[in-house]
């Protein structure tokens, strides 16, 4: 499936799950995102010392799991015992850092699109692309996966491994004709910071089969503005707000 398949729908990507309401990147956040009407989930993939693929944003466990070490230096058996929810609220004390397979299991009998962001800009996690793709393939979910990264070499590597897997280019600034860049690395989508999007660029990119999925868009007026630009998806901490807006626009 090429990028143009992404353009036919407005995907409501819950950023790190429903992270406005639950501790980010936990099963609670993913489940709640579905309840709030998300049609996609964005999450961050890293790797433990013993090679398990886990969903966590920071390279360090400090902020969300209270351990000063880096994810790459801790074995999964130990990581699995850490409380990844109390930092957000005591009512989430049972939440853990999930494995990628837990999310795949949760999503496999749904129509959810999963945006797996490879967090390999600081710690390189050599070979993580093949590991993620092989797990997704084992679940038979390649068609519903979009791999993104700020490390664009990694996106090229994904296409070398599995040309059919969809990729999204993460970036912050005003790239010149980013659809041309996307085509040059066979990417399917532009995961642009929300201020690096103009309506004429969205149209131009669509004409080249490239989707725009801006991040992280939370305020009602910003969501409305970007939906009005015709973007193909939005990454938000508030999938409920985006869901309500998309339903209103369907009716009008
Ligand atoms: O994928 C969109 C967004 O998650 C990228 O930034 O830091 O929230 O992972 P970050
Ligand atoms: Mg992310």
Q: What would your notes on this structure say?
A:
By secondary structure, this protein is α/β, with parallel strands linked by helices. 35% of the residues lie in helices and 17% in strands. It has a single domain, classed as Alpha-Beta Barrel (TIM Barrel). It has helices at residues 4-7, 27-35, 62-65, 76-79, 100-107, 128-138, 152-161, 178-184, 199-207, 220-228, 239-251, and strands at 11-15, 40-47, 53-55, 113-118, 145-149, 166-171, 189-192, 211-212, 233-236. Strands 1, 2, 3, 4, 5, 6, 7, 8 and 9 form a nine-stranded mixed beta sheet that branches. The longest helix is centred in the C-terminal third of the chain and has 13 residues, at 239-251. The model has no long low-confidence stretch (mean pLDDT 96). Magnesium ion is lined by residues 42, 44, 117.
Offer a few descriptive terms:
single chain; 252 residues; alpha/beta; TIM Barrel; 11 helices; 9 strands; 17% strand; binds magnesium ion
Unreliable stretches (pLDDT < 50, length at least 5) are none
Bound molecules: SN-glycerol-3-phosphate, magnesium ion
* Largest pleated sheet: 9 strands, mixed
Q: How many individual helices?
A: 11
CATH architecture grouping: Alpha-Beta Barrel
In CATH, the homologous superfamily goes by the name: Phosphatidylinositol (PI) phosphodiesterase
| Residues in β-strands, percent | 15-25%
Shape: globular
Indicate the CATH topology: TIM Barrel
- Can you write the helix and strand succession as a string? HEHEEHHHEHEHEHEHEHEH
Alpha-carbon distance between the termini? Answer: 31 Å
User: How many separate structural domains?
Assistant: 1
pLDDT averaged over residues: 96
- Tell me the Rg in angstroms: 17 Å
């Amino acid at each position: 499936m090429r990028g143009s398949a992404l353009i036919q729908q407005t995907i409501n990507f819950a950023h790190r799950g429903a992270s406005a309401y639950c501790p980010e990147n936990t099963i609670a956040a993913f489940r709640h995102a579905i309840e709030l009407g998300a049609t996609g989930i964005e999450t961050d993939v890293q790797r433990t010392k013993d090679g398990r693929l886990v969903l966590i944003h920071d390279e360090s466990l400090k902020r969300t799991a209270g351990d000063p070490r880096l994810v790459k230096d801790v074995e999964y058996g130990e990581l699995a015992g850490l409380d990844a929810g109390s930092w957000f609220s005591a009512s989430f004390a049972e939440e853990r850092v999930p494995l990628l397979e837990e999310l795949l299991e949760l999503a496999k009998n749904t129509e959810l699109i999963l945006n797996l962001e490879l967090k390999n800009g600081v710690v390189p996690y050599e070979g993580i692309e093949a590991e993620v793709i092989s797990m997704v393939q084992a679940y038979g979910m390649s068609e519903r996966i979009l791999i993104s990264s700020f490390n664009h070499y990694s996106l090229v590597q994904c296409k070398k491994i599995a040309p059919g897997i969809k990729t999204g280019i993460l970036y912050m600034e005003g790239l010149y004709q980013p659809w041309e860049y996307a085509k040059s690395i066979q990417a399917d989508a532009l995961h642009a910071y929300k201020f690096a999007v103009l309506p004429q660029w969205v149209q131009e990119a669509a004409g080249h089969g490239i989707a725009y999925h801006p991040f992280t868009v939370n305020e009602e007026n910003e969501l409305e503005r970007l939906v009005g630009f015709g973007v193909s998806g939005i990454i938000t901490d508030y999938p409920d707000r985006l869901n309500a807006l998309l339903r209103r626009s369907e009716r009008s």
